[in-house]
Amino acid sequence: MSTLTIYLNGQYMPLEEAKISVLDRGFIFGDGVYEVIPVYSRRAFRLGEHLQRLQHSLDGIRLANPHSVAEWTQIIDELIARNETDDQYLYLHITRGVARRDHAFPNPPVPPTVFVMSNPLSTPAQLSPGVGAVTAQDNRWLRCDIKAISLLPNVLLRQTAVDAGCAETILIRDNDFLTEGAASNIFVVKNGTLLAPPKDNLMLPGITYDVILEIAAANHIPHEVRKITVAEVFDADELLLTSSTKEVLPITHLDGKPVGTARPGPMFNKIYSLYQEFKRDVMRAK
Ligand code: PDD
Question: Does the annotation count 147 as an active-site position?
């Protein structure tokens, strides 16, 4: 495999040559935020929306944005050009920089660490036969709308799924309602209606989530954004998982039991093909 080119603090270099200090606050405290952006045919998908969410995350941790939208766009375009595959996914990572260990912010502030990496993106060439998921209590903090690099709860929750031979963990808050997946958003389908939990401080406002709801609205697919109870999750006809790297996947088993018919359902098939169409149209229009 050929080496990846990355961007670190103003310079492009082979991944193997990138080095940061052990005192970086990202390393010491997980004090930073990130973004994951899919790239199709060498064009970043929904870049404006991803950069807006990055700004929201930076505001949430009181860290100044080191770059304007134009500067980010230039870095991203350059990195895409310097890497090999046409479809990639970008990982943007900004930390509060390097300082002697102290929980409080460095005063005066130090330059942030800015890291961008691109990896090949492989989206499934055919419809997914479905994946399994498990449920778990959502034990994360109350600012899940910030895309923070401190992901220990998400790491542990996702590993619960892997240990059970599954793809994702569906998170339930207060034994009561659905929030999202450990690394994805979750939709419930019941009686032909697509149900989505509302964007609030308890879930990441997914860029793919927004695309799915736009697609539903544009194609007159019945949909509701509202609180979804744990009972509704277990009683779903279909469950869908969405993220920038997975796009949309059908969850066909939950906690070892079939979801609906245990096969990808009509809502998934429809949304999946509309999503592919949407992607093609958007990329063509650029
Ligand atoms: N994660 N919720 C969580 C907790 C996530 O980590 C992600 C994506 C999403 C979906 O958001 P989007 O559609 O904008 O990708 C929801 C990325 C892919 C990751 O951490 O790798």
Answer: yes
**CA nearest to 32, candidates 3, 5, 2, 64:** 64
Q: What pLDDT, on the 0 to 100 scale, is given for residue 46?
A: 97
Residues whose beta carbon lies within 6 Å of some atom of ligand 1: 36, 154, 180, 183-185, 204, 206-209, 242-245
pLDDT in tens, 24-54: 999 999 999 999 999 999 999 999 999 999 9
Secondary structure, 3-state, 160-193: HHHHCCCCEEEEEECCCEEEEECCCEEEEEECCE
Q: Is the pTM of this model over 0.90?
A: yes
Shortest-distance Cα residue to atom 16 of ligand 1: 184
Q: What is the mean pLDDT of residues 98-121?
A: 98
Give the active site residue among 19, 147, 199, 270.
147
Ligand 1 center from residue 111 Cα (angstroms): 27
The residue whose C-alpha atom lies closest to atom 4 belonging to ligand 1 is 183
* Pick among 3.40.50.150, 3.30.70.1560, 3.40.640.10, 3.20.10.10: CATH of 131-285: 3.20.10.10
| pLDDT interval class at 2 (50, 70, 90) | confident
Give the Å distance between the CA of 185 and the centre of ligand 1.
7
Of the CATH numbers 3.30.1460.30, 3.20.20.370, 3.40.50.2000, 3.30.470.10, which one belongs to the domain with range 5-120? 3.30.470.10
Q: Which atom of ligand 1 is nearest to the CA of 147?
A: 6
247 beta partners: 243
The first and second tokens of residue 234, run together, are 């277990």
